[in-house]
Design brief:
Rieske Iron-sulfur Protein, four-stranded antiparallel beta sheet, three-stranded antiparallel beta sheet, 10 strands
């Protein structure tokens, strides 16, 4: 469901600033709490993807047991609790307990060097 992220308590409104692009290490992830809302950001060059930081297996944050979430080839996000694997670009489950599941993607928008929550039409 394209707007599943909006069902979480405290989901931010479109236009809410998340962080600066430079806050996210290139080819890596950044997990943050946006006023109580858990966000996982993935940066691959200038492309940023955002997901609710909640593994659909048990709804624990993907970084529950550590901050090494992205695979060496930068294609898979791995939950540190049970190693469920998700595509870094789509959030779709691709390995282990992630298969058949999907991370809830949050649309992003750019304003200068800032990353914002996008509207529901953006991904």
């Amino acid at each position: 469901m394209a707007e599943a992220w909006k069902r979480y308590r405290g989901a931010p409104q479109a236009g809410t600033r998340i962080c600066a692009l430079s806050d996210i290490p290139n080819e890596n992830t950044l997990c943050l709490d946006l006023d109580g809302f858990p966000i996982l950001l993935v940066r691959l060059g200038d492309d940023v993807r955002a997901y609710v930081n909640a593994c659909p297996h048990q709804y624990l944050p993907l970084d529950h047991k550590g901050d090494k979430l992205i695979s060496a080839d930068k294609t898979i996000l791995r939950c540190t609790n049970h190693a469920a694997g998700f595509s870094a670009t789509t959030g779709e489950g691709v390995e282990g307990l992630g298969i058949g599941e999907c991370l809830d993607r949050i649309p992003v928008a750019y304003e200068g060097q800032s990353i914002l929550v996008g509207d529901s039409g953006a991904v």
